[in-house]
Amino acid sequence: MNKIYLLTAMLLVAAAAMAGVPAPQRGPQKLAHGLPVPVVKPATNVSDAGFTANWEKASGANCYTVYTYIRHKAPADEIYYFYNDDFSGFKYGSIESPFDIGWGWLDGYTNRSNWYVYGAYSCHGVFGLYNKKSAEQNGMLMSPMYSLQNNNGKFTVTFRAKTTGTATVAVFATEYLMAGPSYALGKVGKVELTKEWADYTLELDGGIQGCYVELDMVGGDSNAYFDNMTISQPMKAGDEAMLVCDFVETGDVSSHDVATGDKVAGDVYWYQVASLKRLSSGSELDDSNYSDLVEVKQEGAVCALKASAARAYATADGVVVENPEGADVAVYDAGGREVYASRDGAEKQMVVLPSGVYVVKVGYKVVKVMK
Questions:
Q1: What pTM value is reported for the model?
Q2: 261 pairs with which residues across the strands?
Q3: DSSP bridge partners of 56
Q4: DSSP conformational letter for 355
Q5: Which of 18, 207, 234, 245 yields a CA-CA distance of 20 to 30 A from 324?
Q6: Domain ranges of the chain
Q7: pLDDT in tens, 44-88
């Protein structure tokens, strides 16, 4: 399913449904969905470490897309972290010899889904952005949709960064538009990077329910490199916020295991599922609307999932799978076909693959990788 629709309409509908308010419809909407909506079933295997999302297969579908959300209700006055990533998922390359990711979704690199980038590098534990890569657009990083309306829309972004020459970075809250440039909803924080690593804290405003945090390259002549990024906001007891934590496209299955090892007090997970049919070429033929949201409840749990340290990431040759727990490994292409399987428990596996989008399953953990 084309995730651009999900960024505009579906995520806002989900946020509004949980908040009990009508959702705005923005951007071009796909009006015709030929597949039936999957019947979603209660989650099983619920623990603090994860759960299994379940649904009934839909007629005509050979893939499914699953979105998982966190609805957080502050149990006390607190600082809530919407994002906290050391970028350890960027395994390939270095600052001296960066691995060019290009543009697209950073699922499999970032520790939560739905980050979008234009002009990215992987630098082995460091995330890089192009500067002056093309005449049309410099590097840009956009977060998933967040509910940043609490604390009068004021929030904080921190990161560690450097450049190899000169580089200026702008950070701000924005509404995503299908056409035209982004615009700031509030204060624009600007930082001129230096050649030495330094820590930066930006106090921003303009946060609303259903906004994104955007980071743009706006000056200088050299690439920028980032580490240890956080997005946080003070919340009063009883304040609520919503965010995306996981997206996956599965094969022809009726369940998906979701890891929730970073769960904190006040987090409640929800999920919804859509049907998808792909041709053997991998192109999308048809899809469905998304199901209603299902709350993940502890009651009825039958066992617990162990948090997994498994990872998968793209390289120039294919996909590397890190499997420290010795689990079974399977790789599926965009059409849901299994293109690789291993049950030998090898801790590191190199899968040679052409360019494309792949779903990697390591035990119960599922990662979407774009090569």
A1: 0.72
A2: none
A3: 39
A4: S
A5: 245
A6: 3-73+238-295, 79-234, 311-370
A7: 998 878 899 999 999 989 899 999 999 999 999 999 999 999 998
